[in-house]
Amino acid sequence: MEGMEESRKKRKSESVPVLPWMRSPVDVSLVEECPLELLPCLDPRLNVALQNMGFSLLFPVQVAVWQETVGPGSFERDLCISSPTGTGKTLAYALPIVQMLSSKAVRCLRALVVLPTRDLALQVLF
Question: Where would I find the DEAD/DEAH-box helicase domain in this sequence (predicted)?
Fold first, then answer.
């Protein structure tokens, strides 16, 4: 009986599907901060709004997400960020969404952000 269970566990671990974005993650430690004025394709209105809120540059995780979703050679797709607290994930998600929505003639919901806890959702909301 133990042999069958072990064999089943082995097959199950071998057949776990891996999503494409999990196969080739982007290492944000290789990405440098970027001043807003050097960020490619940033809508000028968004640039002004960010500067008015006190932003002058983007953290590496924000630059990496921007390059993957909005910058030259990018494309829209699902995205998952794994990064420590305080590294700028919220803006990394929000900035491309706002950029893409700002260029749409018909503005309707085109993005969904899923958060694991109510506390985090409240933090992101405000």
Answer: 60-124
In sequence order, which residues have a C-beta less than 8 Å from that of residue 96 and are 6 or more positions away?
65, 66, 69, 70
Q: Tens of pLDDT along 93-111?
A: 889 988 988 877 766 666 7
Mean pLDDT of the chain: 82
Determine how many CB atoms are found less than 10 A away from the CB of residue 81. 17
Distance of CA 3 to the CA centre of its chain: 43
Sign of CA dihedral 83, 115, 22, 75: negative
Q: Where are the domains of the chain?
A: 19-104+112-125
CATH class given for the domain over 19-104+112-125: alpha beta
